[in-house]
Design goal:
heterodimer, A: 289 residues, mainly alpha, MetI-like fold, disordered C terminus, B: 279 residues, disordered N terminus, membrane (chain B), transmembrane helix (chain B)
Chain lengths: 289, 279
């Protein structure tokens, strides 16, 4: 019994952080024995843990503590996502409904999609100066192509037979929109929001590094400029925790809640640029309770 | 075979219907292209118009200014060397990432190792490239190893996911049959496993490449003294927006060309046996 548990994936999963820690300590030992002066560049795990503890308890050298910092960034992300959803929703709807509009915009959507967010970040920081405008516009520019593509797919996949039936039975337009169009668009909108969030976050962080006065990206650059390697690594771990919290916890819960009415939640998630949704674990059964 | 004999029963009507279909199709394509052209004209025109009118010319140089700057930069001879530096970095880093990604993907077939690498893959996919760029920059300084490590860490997970998906869906019955008919290990891998894995590998390569070139440029911004990213940083620090836009757009076009044209052509050539099967 115990032997079987030792061979299972859970024990492997628990071993991974331990091995990482071991490799980390070994690297420090090795590097310190070859170049003794390089020690301050390679922080120990305890330094990083101490730094993270200080950050979490709000005892920080940076101008804002973690909670304020991430809140500032989240506000920017929210504003940018809202604009991206509205603009992308309108354009995507038009592109899904009309072939001509689709031809008009398509290549430019692809072009904006493939642009590295570094380019947006540097451009926005130069063109709009330091402050909120640059990062928000960077979020809009990184997020909007994903919203457009998802909404377009949603409109194309709309159940036309249900419309025909609604028309045949004389259902008023508002009710048809409320009960047919919106439910059929929902999963696509949700996928769009998820993409816009994940990629907009990456874009926002880069934009804040170059063109922010505060926020998460700016703060990690603050530690980088202060040449505190433990600060950079500790903040990076906070980033990972933040992203995992939103991805695994919040979005999964939310999608279960929104799609409770469906027998199985198969949100249309296509990998356009990166497949962020791909996990190696088997799909959990979405319906419970 | 039956389609060959079908037209002889009613040749005139069918031909006219085909003609009509072809005509509407041609008109459709013409209209699409017209709208597409209009889109290009509209956006390029908007860009050209806003520079100097809606926004300062120094803040938003128009397309014509970018072209002029590209000609100037080309004349100085910096362009090919910077491109070559960055492309070499991408090449080496991406190769390493590919090897690591495939290895991890293969190892993940074991249940214990699957659990072991699962979080590594999740972290690799969700962590922004910026973080790896900053960490490697602070640890390695401007040594060559920094950007390479950053590329491997951001890219390997995408390849791993694709490889392990491919291995999971291997046709077990075909392999069993080959085994029972006494086909050797090498031949089995060559004729069953590789052809099955190829599309997954190609998907991984295409996704991976689109991530890898962006991360490379990003790391160069922080920790290199040569390459596209370095030139971009210099241009932004000197507040030369035309130069900055020229560098990024030129490299962007090259990367898109590699991603969408070169890789696609290779893929199509590789799978030529498939299309011949279909035809």
């Amino acid at each position: 019994m115990l032997f079987r548990a030792l061979k299972g994936p859970l024990s492997g999963r628990l071993t991974f952080p331990l091995v990482c820690l071991g490799v980390w300590l070994l690297t420090i030992e090795l590097v310190a024995s070859i170049w003794p002066f390089a020690v301050d560049v390679l922080p120990t795990p305890w330094q990083v843990a101490g730094f993270m503890w200080d950050e979490i308890t709000g005892n920080t050298l940076a101008p804002h503590n973690v909670y304020q910092t991430f809140w500032i960034s989240l506000q920017r992300l929210g504003a940018g996502m809202l604009i991206a959803m509205v603009v992308g929703g309108v354009v995507g709807l038009a592109m899904g409904l009309s072939k001509s509009v689709n031809a008009f915009f398509n290549d430019w959507v692809v072009a904006i999609l493939a642009m590295p967010n570094l380019a947006w970040a540097l451009f926005c920081s130069l063109a709009f100066g330091f402050g909120d405008t640059g990062p928000i516009i960077a979020v809009v520019l990184t997020g909007v192509p994903y919203v457009i593509i998802n909404v377009r797919e949603g409109v194309r996949n709309a159940p036309s037979d249900l419309y025909d039936m609604a028309r045949a039975f004389g259902v008023p337009r508002e009710r048809a929109i409320r009960h047919v169009l919106i439910p059929s668009l929902m999963p696509f909108l949700f996928a769009a929001g998820r993409y816009a969030f994940a990629l907009g976050w990456k874009g926002l962080v880069v934009a804040e590094v170059f063109g922010g006065q505060d926020g998460a990206g700016w703060t990690i650059k603050f530690w980088y400029d202060a040449h505190r390697a433990y600060g950079v690594i500790g903040y990076a771990l906070l980033f990972v925790i933040f992203a995992l919290f939103f991805e695994k916890f919040l979005f999964d819960k939310l999608s279960r809640r929104i799609f409770r009415w469906r027998p199985e939640a198969s949100v249309a998630e296509e990998a356009f640029d990166q497949p962020p949704a791909v996990t190696t674990e088997p799909q959990r059964t979405p319906q419970h309770g | 075979m039956s389609t060959v004999t079908a037209p002889s029963t009613s040749p005139p009507r069918r031909a006219s219907a085909e003609d009509l279909a072809r005509k509407t199709e041609r008109a459709d394509r013409l209209r699409t292209w017209g709208w597409r052209l209009a889109g290009y004209l509209f956006f390029l025109g908007l860009w050209e118009f806003s520079s100097g009118r809606l926004m300062d010319e120094n803040l938003l140089p128009g397309p014509s200014a970018v072209f002029a700057t590209f000609a100037d930069l080309w004349a100085t001879g910096e362009v090919p060397s910077a491109f070559a530096t960055t492309l070499t970095r991408i090449g080496i880093g991406f190769f390493l990432a590919f090897v690591v990604g495939v290895l991890v993907g293969m190892l993940m077939q074991n249940r214990w190792l699957n659990g072991f690498f699962r979080d590594a893959v999740t972290i690799g996919i969700t962590t922004p490239g910026l973080i790896w760029a900053l960490i490697t920059a602070i640890i390695f300084g401007n040594r060559e190893a920094g950007p390479l490590l950053a590329i491997v860490l951001t890219t390997f997970a995408v390849i791993t996911v694709n490889v392990s998906e491919g291995i999971k869906s291997l046709p077990k019955d075909l392999i069993d049959m080959a085994k029972s008919f006494g086909v050797g290990v090498l031949k089995r891998n060559r004729h069953i496993v590789l052809p099955h894995l190829a599309p997954f590998l190609f998907t991984g390569v295409r996704f991976g490449f689109s991530i890898a070139w962006k991360v490379t440029v990003l790391t160069e911004v922080f920790s290199s003294s040569s390459g596209i990213g370095f030139e971009m940083r210099t241009a932004t620090q000197l507040f030369r927006l035309p130069e900055f836009l020229t560098w990024i757009l030129a490299f962007y076009i090259l990367a898109l060309f590699l991603e969408k044209v070169v890789l696609e052509v290779i893929e199509r050539r590789f799978f030529s046996w498939r299309t011949s099967l279909k035809a």
